[in-house]
Amino acid sequence: MKRSLLSQCLLSALVVGAAAQPVYAHSQDPQKPNVLVIVMDDLGTGQLDFAIDSLDKNELSKRPVAARYQGDLDKMIDAAQRAMPNVSKLAATGVKMTNAFVAHPVCGPSRAGILTGRYPASFGIYSNDDSFNGIPLDVKLLPALFQENGYATANIGKYHNARVNKDRKIGRITKPDDVKTRDYHDNFSSVPDKGYFPTDRGFDHSYSYFVSGAALWNSPALWRNDKPIEAPGY
């Protein structure tokens, strides 16, 4: 029987490898399998060829769409599916959970639910804005549990669960025009408060940004562990 797991929602990835060893395709210890959690941001049903039958194109055509995103629906769905062949492969060789639910319908609280195994409202995260308050430090996160059980852990991509202040910027960024590279994402290089970096919460390694969205081209928002890094190009 084909088995695997297709996770929900991306852009961020939680990677846990056995003990202090590098992450391999197959765990060196059968009792400690490697675990990869992929959280995909703004995932559309049209990007999943195995779920295409659930799309009602007539209903979709009635929805208001910003001018920048308008186009031929069939061509856009085709392009979306071609862009994600590995997701289709996971579904084809694994188990599809077609009746799954998350703790919240928006990014930050949903991620907080995954990281804690709790309803995000139970510790005050009701919205993406609340996510900037961070998950309380007395709440243990999933990666910390992995560490306690002999795993090496890493967070790659969007974190969005640290307490940050958008007004705090690192030295090379001095004015609003410098901190925004797209009209949709507030590409701030925000600085998490002490104790709220991913490496403070159970991750051995982190390559992340902490706001709700950031353009990755010449981004001022990327951090490696607890240090901001220059990121020319992609």
Automatic annotation (TrEMBL):
Residues 33-190 form the Sulfatase N-terminal domain. InterPro entries: Alkaline_phosphatase_core_sf, Sulfatase, Sulfatase_CS, Sulfatase_N. The keyword Transport does not apply. Keywords: Calcium, Hydrolase, Metal-binding, Signal. Residues 1-25 form the signal peptide. GO terms for molecular function: arylsulfatase activity; metal ion binding. Gene3D superfamilies: Alkaline Phosphatase, subunit A (3.40.720.10). The keyword Glycoprotein does not apply. It comes from the Bacteria. Belongs to the sulfatase family. This is Arylsulfatase. It comes from Avibacterium paragallinarum (Haemophilus gallinarum).
